[in-house]
């Protein structure tokens, strides 16, 4: 059980680190909000992706709509 937990934690850390790089670069390039907390956003995105597996009957369209909403929350105000 401990080995499984470590493996899952390592995967979460890898995703978080990967997303942090994207979020920080996007923030520096003006693609994401200047006041965005990259650490918190990485956790939200990872949680969102995991949650897609838990929604029975989720359609591609509804998942895409939810992803669009998440991305819109990261974008700078227009």
Please give a structural write-up.
By secondary structure, the protein is mainly alpha-helical. Helix content is 72%, strand content 0%. It has helices spanning 2-28, 38-51, 60-74. Helix 1 packs across helix 2 (38-51). The protein starts with a helix and ends with a helix. The model has no long low-confidence stretch (mean pLDDT 91).
Q: How does the SSE layout of this entry go?
A:
Blueprint: H1 2-28, H2 38-51, H3 60-74
Helix pairs in contact: 1-2
Distance between the termini: 48 Å
**H/E series, N to C?**
HHH
Portion in helices: over 70%
In DSSP terms (H or I, runs of 4 or more residues), the helix count works out at 3
Which class do the helix and strand fractions yield?
mainly alpha
Mean pLDDT: 91
Number of strands: 0
**Biggest sheet, in brief?**
none
- The portion of residues forming beta strands comes to under 5%
Uncertain ranges: none
Question: Which descriptor suits the 3D outline?
Answer: flat
Global Rg: 14 Å
């Amino acid at each position: 059980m401990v080995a499984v937990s470590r493996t899952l934690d390592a995967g979460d850390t890898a995703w978080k680190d990967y997303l942090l790089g994207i979020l920080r670069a996007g923030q520096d390039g003006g693609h994401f909000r200047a006041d965005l907390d990259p650490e918190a956003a990485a956790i939200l995105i990872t949680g969102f992706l995991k949650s897609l597996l838990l929604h029975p009957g989720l359609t591609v369209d509804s998942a895409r709509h939810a992803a669009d909403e998440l991305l819109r929350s990261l974008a700078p105000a227009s």
